[in-house]
Write a structure and sequence with these properties.
Elements (H helix, E strand, L loop, with lengths): L1 E9 L3 E4 L1 H11 L4 E6 L5 E7 L3 H14 L13 H13 L2 E7 L2 E2 L5 E7 L4 E11 L1
Antiparallel strand pairs: 1-8, 2-7, 3-5, 3-8, 4-7, 5-6
Length: 135
C-alpha cells in the first residue's frame, strides 16, 4: 500500500482537474492491479468523476449545485460564514472520496472521464490523498 499527499491552492469556488496527479501517484505506487482511493480531508470540498472535454460542463455542475444549495443566511449552523455553511452541505452531496480501479498499472477511466476536486469555500490551501494497493 502507498499513500501520497498532494497540495492544491484553489483560487475560487469551482472545479480543478486532478486526473494527471492521481495517475502519476498510481504509476509511482507500482501497483499493477488493485484499488486507488482518492480522499479529501476538508468539509467544504469534494471529488467527482465527470467529462473533461468541455469546461463549461463543470460550470453547469457548479451552477446547479449552487442552485440546489444556495448561500443563505438562515442556515442553522453559523460557526463561520454563510458560504462555509453552504459548503458543508455541498461537500456532503458531492462526497469526499472516490474508489478507482487500477488495471495494468493505470487508472481505469472512460475516454472522456476526468477526476475533479471541487472547491465550495475558496480560495483555500487544500490537500488530497491518494492511496493505492493490491487486491
Amino acid at each position: 500500500m502507498t499513500l501520497s499527499n498532494h497540495k492544491l491552492a484553489t483560487s475560487e469556488n469551482g472545479a480543478t482537474e486532478i486526473t494527471q496527479t492521481v495517475a502519476e501517484a498510481v504509476k509511482a505506487s507500482g501497483v499493477e492491479d488493485g484499488l486507488c482511493i482518492v480522499f479529501v480531508p476538508h468539509t467544504t470540498a469534494g471529488l467527482s468523476i465527470t467529462s473533461r472535454w468541455d469546461a463549461k460542463g463543470l460550470e453547469d455542475i457548479h451552477d446547479d449545485i449552487d442552485r440546489l444549495v444556495p448561500t443563505r443566511i438562515d442556515f442553522k449552523h453559523q460557526f463561520d460564514t454563510p458560504q462555509d455553511a453552504a459548503g458543508h452541505v455541498k461537500s456532503v452531496l458531492v462526497g469526499v472520496s472516490l474508489p478507482l480501479i487500477i488495471t495494468e498499472g493505470a487508472l481505469l477511466l472512460g475516454h472522456s472521464q476526468g477526476i475533479f476536486f471541487h472547491e465550495f469555500d475558496g480560495p483555500r490551501q487544500r490537500q488530497f490523498f491518494v492511496r493505492c494497493g493490491c487486491d
